[in-house]
Write a structure and sequence with these properties.
It is built from three helices and no strands. It has 62 residues and is mainly alpha-helical. This is DUF2783 domain-containing protein.
């Protein structure tokens, strides 16, 4: 089974949506928004192990 991926334009759309939402949430609520978004996406993903892998990849080179 292959994992679906986004095209570059799709990733750009996601980035724009995320940036706009972070701005809309405001600096005082941005962290809460990102946690809620991560939990919603983890639920949609349906795999705690895959979510943990994503977290580790996102932490690299910060």
């Amino acid at each position: 089974m292959t994992t679906p991926t986004l095209s570059i334009p799709g990733l750009e759309d996601v980035y724009d949506t995320l940036a706009t939402a972070i701005d809309k949430a405001g600096a005082d609520k941005a962290q809460l928004f990102l946690v809620k978004l991560a939990l919603l996406n983890a639920n949609a993903l349906g795999s705690p192990e895959q979510f943990q892998q994503h977290v580790q990849v996102a932490l690299k080179s910060l």
